[in-house]
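explain this:

___
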Amino acid sequence: MSRRHITIVEVGPRDGLQNEPTVFEPAVRAEFVQRLEAAGARRIEAVSFVHPKYVPQMAGAEAVMTLLTPNPGHSRIGLVLNGRGYDRALETRVDEVNVSLSATDGFGLKNQGLSVDDQVTMLGEIIGRRHNAAGRAAAAPALSATISCVWGCPFDGEVSVDQVTSLVGRIAALGVGEIALADTIGAGDPWAVTRVVEAARKAAPEARLRLHFHDTRNTGLANAYAGVEAGVDVLDASAGGIGGCPFAPGATGNIATEDLVYMLERAGFTTGYDLDALITTARWMGDRLGRPAPSALSRAGGFPRRT
């Protein structure tokens, strides 16, 4: 019997760096991507096409992509918040565009200046342009969508399962094949994860679900476990456990890629990552940031020790 494979989408170069006080030059960010790919990352959120006025850490996305030579079998993802960001992404070599939406009006207005309904309209316009552009749709990068604040909003508070599944259904109806559910402020628990995943699967039975957890309240790995047990095969993680959201007060980093890889592979799953190389990369980034990476394995290392 083959071992079940879990795809881990590495988000360190985008979600990991966007909330850090240090603003890195494109060359450092491109090297981070390259180191992560050498450690086994096959899908990686490399850049974000947002206005540098609001997220200066993500300035120069085009320069980062120019520095990254094509790597067959690997997908470099660019995050976009609106049509302008999508236009910028199309001018680069990104392999995939991830459109960010929010489950709540409060976060959507703060993060993008758009209500939930307006965000759905924006996504529909992007998809319509992909279909209508003669000869361009075939060459356009793949498209996915992420719903933020699925398990709680810093402005609107609790988020109901019905709120989430309504939005999941609307996104799926537009033809989006992969929908990520994000715990932006780390408010979720494993039982809530199970409830949302089961309901989302009913709302969008043809879509692939992806999960994105922050470890703000120390439930990130438990939530990842619940998601895998519920049948989800794609998870986001950030090397070193760095990250957060500049528009979500108190939000801290994603679950650490190396911690997630360790947990999954000890349990018998495959991920395709080199754990030692991941730990080395997390420590390298910690040195760049001027502080140790917060992940457990960047401190303790793997087990058993390799001689």
In short: The longest strand covers residues 96-102.
